[in-house]
Amino acid sequence: MHSTQTNINDNLSKNGAIETVVVVGGGIAGWLTAGRVAARHKSHTTEGINVVLVESPTIPAVGVGEGTWPTMRSTLIALGISETDFIRECDASFKQGAKFAKWVDGTDNDFYYHPLVLPQGFAKGDIAAYWLAKDQKSCGNSFSNDVCFQEAICEKGLAPKTIRTPEFDAIVNYAYHLDSVKFAIFLQKHCTEKLGITHILDNVEKINTAGNGDIASVSTKNNGDICGELFIDCTGFSSLLLGKHYQVPFKSCKDILFIDTALAIQVPYEDEESPIASHTISTGQEAGWIWDIGLQHRRGVGYVYSSKYSSEQQAREILAQYVGTKFDNAKVRKIPINSGHREKFWQKNCVAVGLSAGFLEPLEASALVLVELSAQMIAEQLPTTRRSMDIVAKRFNDTFLYRWDKIIDFLKLHYILSKRVDNRFWSDNRDPKSIPQSLKDLMELWQYRSPADHDFTSNNEVFPAASYQYILYGMGFKTDYSHAFHLLDDWQYAEQQFAQNEKMTQTMTSTLPSNRELLNKIKQYGFSRL
Q1: 123: left (phi over 0), alpha (psi -120 to 50) or beta
Q2: Banded pLDDT at 483 (limits 50, 70, 90)
Q3: How far apart are CA 405 and CA 438, in angstroms?
Q4: CA torsion 160→163→169→172, rounded to 10°?
Q5: Angstrom distance (rounded) from CA 486 to CA 492
Q6: 121-125, 255-259, 358-362: segment of lowest average pLDDT
């Protein structure tokens, strides 16, 4: 039996067995991807896949992605990371969705929520149509407030769980806000100490090509050639392997999403007991919007805007007005945004993850979730040999081209429903020429029925139908059921769900601690382990 196994292994080697995966570039994208591969393929053992991460000691990380999705909980579990350690060391706080202020008409009382909890009873029946009929009777509440209790939790600054809830468990669905620089350092330490990843700090000076066009190795300044069978490009905007070496074209979407510049700053709290928002706050401005993310010790704030519709000086003044007196001592970082993605993400034996694959404006925290999804798919479908790699590559490319297109549609949806007229930025965003046909088709369907799961036929959807409902009806879109009123045939069920949501709202808002209170207890006591 042993000799047979040896022969099989010999044959695999001859067929190009994947024995070493080389990740070029660090940061969250590099370490998270390396970690997912190493954890699944037992890199800490002699039988496992060898994972090497090489990164430049001189190139700083971009470090702006501070918002995550609930998927991050599964990612941390897969990496074997303690939630308590993560929260303590990455300045992390809890995120329960996004609040969009001044996106509809720009007035002070203009806001809506995209929570992380599905509408009440969504799995059994869609109550959006009943809410629309109810709303026409002047019920007066927002869609998310009537169908989901999470808006009320966020408005009160409450946490999604208590200190007695085990790690990663939730009373209310949640994601995180985190310090991206601290998170990258935390991942590096965990990956090298616990997952068996080899870390090389060096500059890549040359990419060496094999006879079949694959990357055979990368030459470094001080460590010579680093060989592997699969290379993962996490080199950020430079896209050293996929973009520069393989010349895979970049597909811009600036004709759809106009944002091209970010001004980012860090804002300290008034004191150590200042409330911490339990959600991302996105506030519409003249030529874009401002993000506001509450961590434990500071807020991450930034104005993303289109330079076509605003000068940098105007943008700085708007950001200063939003931040107040603390803006005077803040260091402002200017970050160019080139919205779009590579035409393919896996070429030969090279796959790009993170900024090297593409980037869109930081609306709805899509950047980190794409890193997570990419890392997960690479780890789970890692080809055994080079012969099967092209099959996996095609599947990966098809999957992520679809995901990028759907994210672009979803981000654009936020703009086309706005009624703001204070700057051409908003009116031009409503121009039909700037709206993808795929989104136009969906909007046509939703004129007469609410978004439903059957509108999305792929199992690779990034945003569920409920997310589209929250944006549509949060921004005042009206679906006309006058031609299909017969579909509203279970008012009893709908009223039960509305009543249940009121009950859940009262229960949650009276029992959950504040975000700050829970984070303080985690620092002091920690969660109980799963």
Answers
A1: alpha
A2: confident
A3: 9
A4: -20
A5: 15
A6: 121-125
449: number of Cβ within 10 Å: 17
Query: Does residue 1 surpass a pLDDT of 70?
Result: no
Please report the pLDDT score of residue 171 as a whole number: 97
Closest by CA position to 438, among listed 412, 414, 418? 412
Given a cut of 90, whether residue 128 has pLDDT beyond it is: yes
pTM: 0.94
Mean of pLDDT values over 494-513: 96
CB burial readout 483-522, b (16+ within 10 A) else e: eeeeeeeeeeebeebbeebeebbeebeeebbbbbbbbbbb
pLDDT score of 7 = 42
**Phi first, then psi: what are they for 15, rounded to 5°?**
-90, 10
Q: How far apart, in whole angstroms, are the C-alpha atoms of residue 218 and residue 261?
A: 33
Cα(145)–Cα(151) distance, integer angstroms: 6
* Structural domains present in the chain: 2-66+180-249+342-405 (3.50.50.60), 98-146+256-339+407-505 (3.50.50.60)
Contacts for 57-63: CB closer than 8 Å, 24+ residues apart? 57/201, 57/202, 57/203, 58/203, 59/236, 61/26, 61/27, 61/28, 61/180, 61/181, 61/184, 61/236, 62/27, 62/236, 62/237, 62/335, 62/355, 63/27, 63/180, 63/181, 63/184
